[in-house]
Design a protein that fits this description.
The chain is α+β, with helices and mostly antiparallel strands and about 325 residues long. The chain is built from 13 helices and seven strands.
Length: about 325
């Protein structure tokens, strides 16, 4: 079947080409997202990949599978994008109030969340390979280390095939992988307890209790649901708050600034994790993604980017009274 589609596509049959590549479109988008960390950049890379594949059909010798061929093109498009654009952090929003001194500054504030609706079928994914912490850790590696790690350790391509994709040797890829794995061990959080299954009653209960406390400015109740080493981040703002005292200080300062105005929220999902859109006075006020650790919350990431809302099926405004 693949050979028939290739033959037709090489004659200029766009429908055959679409049938050939469409099964890989979503996984290619996730691949580019892992390498680049931002949805618009990933979408651009996928479009460039498919255009290059269409133009390169005459040179495709079928020594690799169509899937491997597409991953080769996509990987090079991502590496080129990183080289050409660099890693310029987006402009950080100016806090509307005097925020407490942060515990540290975010090293990769350009990373965005990915809607679960854009992920391939869950059966093909491991949660830890799509979570925000993993995507952010990948961004801290040199680009070719990121590519080698994703191709081999996440996607399972053999060393020889990954080396061919990266235009290098198997020995070089092996060394690159060793360095990437070593760095990743120092930049990713330690082991966590298993999170409740996605969509389970336990996940809904924990997320519901956290959300209720958060929107009610019940700081003590929020802190009671956090792990001892929890942290709060607000990309693209660089500020991060680590531990109960620091997080509580920030939440109280935020509540004081709002002077009794309450949030409303709408649930969604991002990176295989529970999330919700916040609204203040009916307007977007941040997309919050929760990282769960057993029956506690280990990380609260609030993305201060209103352009994300449509991607997550969230409205541009809400009627707080109608939501109760």
């Amino acid at each position: 079947m693949t050979s028939v589609l290739l033959t037709r596509a090489r004659t200029g049959d766009h429908d055959a080409f679409a049938e050939l590549v469409d099964p890989y479109r979503r996984e290619l988008q996730l691949h580019c997202y892992r390498l680049l960390g931002r949805l618009p950049d990933a979408e651009d890379a996928v479009q460039e990949t498919l255009l290059a594949a269409w133009r390169g059909l005459p040179e495709f010798e079928e020594r690799a599978s169509v899937r491997g061929w597409l991953y080769r093109i996509a990987t090079h498009r991502c590496l080129n994008a990183i080289r050409d654009a660099g890693r310029r952090p987006p402009l950080a929003p100016v806090p509307p109030f005097e925020a407490p001194e942060p515990s540290r500054h975010h090293e990769v504030p350009w990373v965005q969340p990915c809607p679960d609706a854009m992920l391939p079928e869950p059966a093909y994914l491991r949660r830890e390979q799509v979570e925000l912490a993993f995507v952010e850790a990948l961004q801290q590696l040199p680009p070719r280390q990121t590519a080698a790690l994703v191709l081999c350790d996440v996607l399972g391509f053999p060393l020889a095939e990954a080396a061919d994709m990266l235009d290098t040797t198997t020995t070089a890829v092996k060394g690159t992988l060793q360095r990437a794995r070593s760095t990743l061990r120092t930049t990713t959080p330690g082991p966590r307890r298993p999170a409740p299954p996605a969509g389970s009653a336990a996940e809904r209960d924990l997320t519901g209790r956290f959300t209720a406390a958060f929107v009610a400015d019940d700081v003590e109740a929020v802190i009671a649901l956090l792990t001892d080493d929890a942290w709060l981040a607000m990309p693209p703002a660089p500020h991060q708050y680590l531990g109960a005292a620091a997080i509580a200080g920030f939440l109280r300062a935020s509540a004081d600034w709002r002077a009794g105005r309450r949030y409303t929220c709408l649930p969604t999902r991002a990176n295989g994790q529970p999330a919700f859109g916040l609204y203040l006075d009916a307007a977007p006020a941040g997309l919050v993604v929760l990282t769960l650790d057993g029956d506690r919350v280990a990380r609260v990431t609030r993305f201060m980017d209103d352009t994300l809302y449509p991607r997550f099926g969230l409205p541009a405004s809400v009627d707080a009274g109608a939501l109760g």
